[in-house]
């Protein structure tokens, strides 16, 4: 819902020397120094922890501009005091839920379960388990993504039988070397 785009001029809101309207002194904030509308919208949500808002904004920027994900939108969960992001890795993919958290936040199993229940999206396929991706934000703005799924997820089969043979051989070699 909030993307950086072309600056739109509004009547009476032009910068000095541009278009018609009220003259704005050079000391007024420019688009480069004003916060993005998305950050302002996140700040207006009922989330009291500013570090959580900042983490959500960094993940938003990483998904949208660093990884080129599609339809990145923020959703406030006031009861959890979290901001979640819904996004698509590719246009045809289904929406994924990202839960940004600062690295210094401690999460219990109960808290993770509560986040999973309230933040995950309902799926059309009942066989698809609930899942969310924790986006853990380090103080240097590094983001680590950790996908959590409710229950066990069976791994995809290997692409070829040669891969299976290599895996079996590696296991046998490990046993023999002990």
From the structure above, extract its key features:
single chain; 178 residues; alpha+beta; Trna Endonuclease, Chain: A, domain 1; globular; tRNA splicing endonuclease subunit 15; nucleic acid binding; tRNA_endonuc-like_dom_sf
Describe the protein.
This protein is of the alpha+beta class and 178 residues long. The chain has a five-stranded mixed sheet. It is globular. The protein has a domain of 117 residues: Trna Endonuclease, Chain: A, domain 1, CATH 3.40.1350.10. Strand 4 and strand 5 form a beta hairpin.
Topology:
Elements: H1 37-43, H2 50-66, E1 70-77, E2 82-88, E3 96-102, H3 109-119, E4 131-137, E5 143-149, H4 161-177
Parallel strand pairs: 3-4
Antiparallel strand pairs: 1-2, 2-3, 4-5
Helix pairs in contact: 1-2
Biased composition (Basic residues): 168-178
Biased composition (Basic and acidic residues): 8-23
Protein name: tRNA splicing endonuclease subunit 15
Reported for the largest beta sheet, the result is: 5 strands, mixed
Can you list the strand order of the major beta sheet? 1-2-3-4-5
Q: Total number of β-strand segments?
A: 5
* Proportion of residues in extended strands: 15-25%
Count of DSSP-assigned helices: 4
* CATH uppermost class of the domain at 37-153: Alpha Beta
- Any idea of the CATH topology of the domain at 37-153? Trna Endonuclease, Chain: A, domain 1
Kindly state the mean pLDDT as a whole number?
74
Radius of gyration: 22 Å
What helical percentage do the residues reach? 25-40%
Pick out the low-confidence regions: 3-30
Per the principal axes of the C-alpha atoms, what is the gross shape? globular
CATH architecture term of the domain at 37-153: 3-Layer(aba) Sandwich
Structural class: alpha+beta
How far is the N terminus from the C terminus?
57 Å
From N to C, what is the helix and strand string? HHEEEHEEH
């Amino acid at each position: 819902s909030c993307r950086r785009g072309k600056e739109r001029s509004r009547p009476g809101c032009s910068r000095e020397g541009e278009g018609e309207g009220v003259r704005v002194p050079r000391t007024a904030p420019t688009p480069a120094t004003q916060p993005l509308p998305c950050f302002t919208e996140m700040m207006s949500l009922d989330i009291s922890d500013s570090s959580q808002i900042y983490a959500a904004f960094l993940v938003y920027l990483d998904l949208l501009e660093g990884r080129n994900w599609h339809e990145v939108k923020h959703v406030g969960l006031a009861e959890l005091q979290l901001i979640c992001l819904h996004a698509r890795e590719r246009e045809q993919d289904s929406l994924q839920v990202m839960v940004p958290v600062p690295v210094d936040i401690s999460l219990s199993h109960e808290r993770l379960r509560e986040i999973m229940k309230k933040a995950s999206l309902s799926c059309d396929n009942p066989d698809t388990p609930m899942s969310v991706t924790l986006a853990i934000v380090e103080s240097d703005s590094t983001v680590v993504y950790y996908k959590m799924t409710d229950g066990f997820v069976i791994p995809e089969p290997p692409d070829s039988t040669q891969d299976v043979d290599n895996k079996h051989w590696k296991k046998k070699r490990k046993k023999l070397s002990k």
